[in-house]
């Protein structure tokens, strides 16, 4: 496989990052399985790139439908070299405001949807002993803000799942990266998010966190994604944007808290000989 003949499987290809990255891959001669809930939203790609594009209708929450679509893609192009789990949306609401349906819907798309697509694609990559998996999480997968806990929960869950995944599949030549974009000027807020009914008890919290963000140009991410896919040894995590400087003090504080409470942690271990045969993690 060379840089110019990869086959990509991209969820959420009709807009935002998915559309931009599909376009970037196609422009350099790669093939793209572009998926969306409505294939009419993918016609622009087919018109411009013809047979390099396979448009497929896909609802990532439909596990059977996911496996069918992945099978069609592999049969059509003969391989899947790059998986981009991009489909998802954001849900705004304080934790107390979330309904059961809202949190389950958030998890079904952002977490379980990515899981189903990953499970469908990994056997193909494992058989060909190569592949790249890009899990599009968020800077919200490594930090959190009030008022968007459901979204954070879905992205932190995907981060943890993928942390295990890369350790399981790297023996098969499959590399996994959690791609963690910060704020970008996409239509995510306008069409890619939902909101719970508001409880006035949290008005002060909302007012405190209502400030704007320094947003990036989404088109500028395409070169970074191509570089990530082309590198011989992909990182397990990659920020897109200016997140790093904001994240550093958060993690420094976590390390300092763990250090300060280490005597309590060790005391909680007790005096049992260190001969345990299980990890006992919770």
Question: How is this structure best described in words?
Answer:
Helices cover 45% and strands 15% of the residues. With 282 residues, the protein is of the alpha/beta class. It has a single domain (7-245), classed as NAD(P)-binding Rossmann-like Domain (Rossmann fold), CATH 3.40.50.720. Helix 1 (16-27) packs across helix 8 (221-230), helix 3 runs parallel beside helix 4 (100-128) and helix 4 (100-128) packs parallel to helix 5. The longest helix has 29 residues, at 100-128. The chain starts with 6 loop residues before the first strand and ends in a 15-residue tail after the last helix.
Task: Provide tags for this entry.
alpha/beta; Rossmann fold; two-stranded parallel ribbon; 10 helices; about 45% helix
Briefly summarize what is shown.
With 282 residues, the protein is α/β, with parallel strands linked by helices.
Number of domains: 1
**Terminal residue distance:** 42 Å
- CATH superfamily grouping: NAD(P)-binding Rossmann-like Domain
What is the annotated CATH architecture? 3-Layer(aba) Sandwich
* Mass-distribution shape: globular
C-alpha-based Rg, rounded: 20 Å
Helix content: 40-55%
Spatial strand arrangement across the major sheet: 3-2-1-4-6-7-9
- Got a strand count? 9
Spans of 5+ residues with little confidence (pLDDT < 50)?
A: none
Helix-strand category? alpha/beta
Quote the beta fraction. Answer: 15-25%
- Look at the structure and give the mean pLDDT: 93
- CATH fold title: Rossmann fold
Order of helices and strands: EHEHEHEEHEHEHEHHEHH
CATH class, anyone?
A: Alpha Beta
What's the main sheet like? 7 strands, parallel
Total helices: the number is: 10
């Amino acid at each position: 496989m060379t840089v110019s003949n990869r086959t990509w499987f991209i969820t959420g290809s009709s807009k935002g990052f998915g559309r931009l990255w599909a376009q970037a891959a196609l422009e350099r001669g790669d093939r793209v399985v572009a998926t969306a809930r409505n294939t009419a939203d993918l016609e622009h790609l087919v018109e411009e790139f013809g047979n390099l594009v396979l448009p497929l209708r896909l609802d990532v929450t439909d596990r059977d439908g996911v496996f069918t679509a992945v099978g069609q893609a592999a049969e059509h192009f003969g391989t899947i070299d790059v998986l981009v789990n991009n489909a998802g949306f954001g849900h705004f609401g304080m934790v107390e405001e979330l309904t059961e349906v809202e949190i389950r819907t958030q998890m079904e798309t952002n977490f379980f949807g990515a899981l189903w697509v990953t499970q469908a694609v990994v056997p193909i990559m494992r058989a060909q002993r190569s592949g790249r998996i890009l899990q599009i999480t968020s800077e919200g997968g490594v930090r959190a803000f009030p008022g968007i806990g459901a979204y954070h929960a879905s992205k932190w869950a995907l981060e943890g799942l993928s942390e295990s995944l890369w350790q399981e599949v790297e023996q098969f030549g499959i590399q996994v990266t959690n791609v963690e974009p910060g704020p970008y000027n996409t239509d995510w807020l306008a069409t890619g998010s939902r909101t719970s009914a508001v409880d006035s008890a949290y008005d002060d919290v909302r007012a405190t966190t209502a400030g704007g963000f320094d947003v990036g140009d989404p088109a500028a991410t395409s070169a970074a994604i191509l570089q990530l896919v082309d590198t011989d040894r992909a990182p397990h995590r990659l920020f897109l944007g200016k997140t790093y400087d904001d994240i550093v003090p958060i993690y420094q504080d976590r390390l300092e808290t763990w250090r300060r409470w280490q005597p309590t942690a060790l005391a909680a271990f007790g005096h049992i000989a260190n001969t345990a045969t299980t990890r006992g993690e919770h």
